Request: fold
Amino acid sequence: MTIQSFISNNQDLVQLIYFALIITTLWCSEVIFTNSLAGEKFKHTRVNLLFILTALPVQLFMISLVLLVSAWVNQHHWGLINYLPFHENPWVYYISLFILMDLCEYIYHVIMHKFDFLWKFHLVHHSDLKVDVSTTVREHPGETFVRTSFQMLWVFLLGPVAMVLVLRQTVQTFSNIAAHTTLRLPNRINKIVGLIFVTPNIHQVHHHYQLPYTDRNYGDVLSIWDRLFGTYAELEKEDTVFGVDTHMQPSVNTKFINIIKVPFQKLERK
Ligand SMILES: [Zn+2]
Ligand SMILES: [Zn+2]
Reply:
């Protein structure tokens, strides 16, 4: 078996190893560059890592369904991409789908904030009082189910081949983990990179505990949608406080068993 065929036959495993490598590298960089105590940081990380145990089975099962939808739409030449001019050109095909899928992720994220029933699941991600790379995996399994269900819908509407999904996942993994790191970009670099891409400086605003900032910077990989739809905001590091104003108690936020129950409790609106 060649390396290429191993990679294409074991995409789930390859994506997981890739995810683990990036998160570990950035986690160690955070310890080194912010002079954090590794022991203290690990206590916080441990809580977030527990979410992998609950979300991963849901993610793997649902992604296999997303891939089935992708196979079906391609077999039936279904999806908006087939109506795009020049879509036979691979560059047009891959780049257009990447951008359109990013718009779909933006819409999904806005929906998660606007409906109380969905917000209760999504606020688990926002409830982290110390945002770092481990916050990336702090996702309630209920949200994993909703997110991947929406993904099925996007694939059904747009019609991408599986390779588009694999490439997008590869970029998205790096982008999502990097967006949660405590290592902010220098302002001058952020001004340039942040014109197109979501940076830690941009995503940290979204994790500020109070409105309107919680409802700003919804972007997934690209920051262009926030600029386009008027949901872009900036906030200095010193003014940023992580969390959600309705759920600031460390007794809840630092205990896995308490956080996982949050979506099933009565919601005091933020
Ligand atoms: Zn959010
Ligand atoms: Zn986040």
Summary: Residues 62 and 149 are 7 Å apart (CA to CA). The mean pLDDT is 89. The first helix runs from residue 3 to 9. Residues 125, 135, 180, 203, 207 surround zinc ion (ligand 2) (CB under 6 Å).
